[in-house]
Amino acid sequence: MSLLRSSASWALAFLVGGVSLSAQEGPENTGDRAAALHVLNRITFGPRPGDVEAVEKMGIQNFIEQQLHPENIDDSKCDAEVAQYELLQMSTADLAKIFYDEIKQRQKEQKERAAAQKALADGTAPPPPMENSGQPMQEPGGSPMLNPAMTTPNAAPETAAEAPQELRRKPGKIADALAKAARARTVKAIGEIEEAKLVRATDSNRQLQEVLVDFWENHFNVDVKKGPDRILEITEDRDVIRPHIWGKFRDLLEATAKSPAMLFYLDNATNTVARTLTPFQQQMRARFLQMAVGADLANAIGLNTTPSQQPKQVGGINENYGREIMELHTIGVDAGYTQQDVQEVARCFTGWTFDRQTGAFLFRPRQHDEGAKTVLGHYIPAGGGIEDGETVLDILCSSPACAKFISRELCQRFVSDDPPEALVTRIAGVFTQTGGDLRAVTEAILTSPEFLSPADDNTKIKSPLEFAVSAVRASESTLTPRLPEPWGTIVPTTEGAAVLGRVQAADRLSKAKKQSLNWHVVELGEPLYACTPPTGYGENSKKWVSPGALIERLNFALALTQQQISDVNFNAQTILGGIDLDHPEKMLDRAVSVLLNNEITDATKQVLLKVAVPPPGESQTVNPNKLIALILGSPEFQRK
After folding, report:
1. Of 16-25, 54-63, 93-102, which gets the smallest average pLDDT?
2. Phi, psi of 13 (to 5 degrees)
């Protein structure tokens, strides 16, 4: 029976039995053990066997306090695992160079191809052998990027997208795949950062830190499918989000405002005051660009090097970042700002850009609007320069609406999809009193009565990332960081190509006998770092409930227990502890104890007995993998 048919029948059994994914169906938790389980479900990516007992012994508040200070937690093993990813260790300048080197190589290939075609048409020479037939520099779907500068410079070598088992039978293709993957390292970067996120979520001892990194990376969403963000997301995660999640919100906001990944994603890198260049100024500009980067690359990245004989207007206001910094990053859409405020904020951030060659933040005074502005009723005098943008950050962060907006989102993550208004108001007060101290705000939420209220147990649905990682952790499976070569190069490159929209790569991954944990998260509906809207994936967990969600999650559970996930090692006996297969009810009790910590409804228990335990008179041998998969796919396991 196929995974889909099998899981569909099990899902039907749950539904017929009155069990659904809706939050109100969860078991009622009471006592310290249930409270420990609740804390682990909310501030970690799910408990491993023994974690509940450890937290009970340590004390819930002591555990929370420990997680609030990750600098005191040894995480050297996880750090060593992440260190295996080559691109994640590179500087911003080196990463930017990789991106532009790929563009230069692409330009060279296009010139050679054009020359070869011309020679063939003229009959003057045979075409030189071409290593790569090439594709126009476009993003998936054929739509050119806003700036031709940042298109796909060899986005997905299709040979590298061969599934590993296919390549294994064709040794000649392995070398070809590796060679072409080496020419698309920016694509490999996507796979590497996604894999590293899963390694940290699964193996890090600093679990609350990883939960918060996930929260803030969704809050300040950047989509790797957009041009150089495929490689700049590495620095966004490493240098922008991670160093600031325990500090002041104002510092985090400024770091994102100056982040090259954000500057490009929300188009502020091209947000300039409109100005007129004389023919002489155009000639000087063209000469400078040709000397700095070369005419071909300058043209490829949208910097025209051809001067005009007439005065020419360049630049102009782009409102994207001005809008999103208010709507999504600080005060929220209901804060009462106007379109005029959006325009004024955009004017304040003119000239905030980054060096395309190094990835470093730059402020270009000549591109800045030096006029006076008024933002949310605050007058900003003319001639402020870079301080105009910094003043906007101050205005937004000091607004009561910002305190309320950030507090509500954090309460949504940790307490409830619809957090109590009294709690949000109290947390906003902490935000204001501490100047936006994010550690203090997080601590106030995690030590609030509402956080530990039994009424909010099991009321949130795990995201696909949370579900997949919690299944690996609960089953005490082990994740293999970075597969050995050649798969350590081929797999992340293939997955990066698929995330970018390369259909052939995605098809091959989906049809492969084994897929990685990362690709399963994609198929569950949450491709990491690849949420297209600037909203990110959001904090209301109800969006993960859909008619097909239970089936897809059961498919994942089946793949895990049948050892069909290429980088996860699963062993049923780790869960069952050597219980004889001829004792089905003992096996069921043991698996429910390990995987669900005995938090199970009667309805789910009856479905498990009916579907997984043989009836009297029949063979009493139980398929342990099927039993464990069904428990992992149960509604109880998908709630937190």
Report:
1. 16-25
2. -60, -40
